[in-house]
Structures are given as C-alpha cells and as structure tokens.
Design a protein that fits this description.
It catalyses: a 6-O-methyl-2'-deoxyguanosine in DNA + L-cysteinyl-[protein] = S-methyl-L-cysteinyl-[protein] + a 2'-deoxyguanosine in DNA; a 4-O-methyl-thymidine in DNA + L-cysteinyl-[protein] = a thymidine in DNA + S-methyl-L-cysteinyl-[protein]. The protein is an alpha/beta fold. Helix content is 36%, strand content 17%. It is built from five helices and six strands, in the order ββββααβααβα. The strands form two sheets. A four-stranded mixed β-sheet has the order 3-2-1-4, with helices on one face. It has a two-stranded parallel ribbon with strand order 5-6. A hairpin with a 4-residue loop joins strand 2 and strand 3. Helix 3 crosses helix 4. The protein is globular and about 40 Å long. The relative contact order is 0.15.
C-alpha cells in the first residue's frame, strides 16, 4: 500500500491506496508495510478531501478498494448510500443490509471500516438520536456531522 499523510481540520490522517483504489483513511499510524509514495490517485484523493473539509465537496469520485467479509462489504455499501448531511440509525442500516436484527453486527462492521469519511460511518447514530460508538472517537464523529450539517444546503 502506498500512503501519504494529510493535515486536516481533524488532525493528521493517513491516506492509503493499492492498485485497485483507496483502501485506507484513518487517523494514527500507517498500516505495517505501507510506503510513503505520492501517486496520482493519492493526490486526487487529497484534493477531494480538502474540498470536503472546505464544504465544497459532498460526493467523492474515487475508486475504493475495500477488503472484508461479504457482510462487512454490504454494510459499507449501505453506508455509501447515506446522503451527505443525513444520518441513519444502526437499525436502519441493519434493515438496509437485509438483517433487521443485526444492529450490533452493523456496528462492528462500521467500527472496522478502513476508509472513514469516504465510507461515511460517521452518519450512523443511535436510535435515540445520540452519537454512539465511533472507532475514531465521538469528537471526530461530531465534527464531521456538524461540518456536513453546515454545508448541506449550500
């Protein structure tokens, strides 16, 4: 995997890509074996993320390379279907993947999502409307939801 580090309003993010597309976007350290190499895809992704944080981009036009179980991939596909600035509950996500009782399993699939923001797991909230679990921290989740709410109609 080739990576680059991004300085963003939420701190440093590690952006990674393999031969098929973007496969990593998370805070913290790079996955083991990753190489710091600038590629055209990473450069394009960096520009699109900069536009997102500036409120000028609501949809990403990037190839994604997601590795996971069929259930995880279904959950991540359902995340990508949530429109910018909107939220869904874990129960709604479970229903969207055809297993209405799988709320906890959906939560775990969201937790291991390797591509935050681009696969918008921050858009899933508790059924009571409150923020619940986010692998990258609830303050980041709140920031992303507030960012999208501020730019939803612009």
């Amino acid at each position: 995997m080739n990576i680059q580090y991004l300085s963003t309003p939420v701190g440093r993010l590690v952006l990674g890509a393999d031969d098929s597309g973007i496969c990593w976007l998370r805070p913290g350290d790079a996955p083991s074996g990753a190489q710091l190499v600038q590629t055209p895809l990473l450069q394009t992704a960096s520009i699109q993320l900069e536009e997102y944080f500036a409120g000028r981009r609501k949809d990403f036009e990037l190839p994604l390379s997601l590795s996971g179980t069929p259930f995880q991939r279904a959950c991540w596909d359902a995340l990508c279907a949530i429109p910018y600035g909107e939220t869904r509950t874990y129960a709604q996500q479970a229903a969207a993947v055809g297993n209405p009782k799988a709320c906890r399993a959906v939560g775990m699939a969201n937790h291991v999502n390797p591509i935050i923001i681009l696969v918008p797991c921050h858009r899933v909230i508790g059924s009571n409307g409150r923020l619940t679990g986010y692998a990258c921290g609830l303050s980041l989740k709140q920031f992303l939801l507030d960012l999208e709410a501020a730019h939803r109609t612009k």
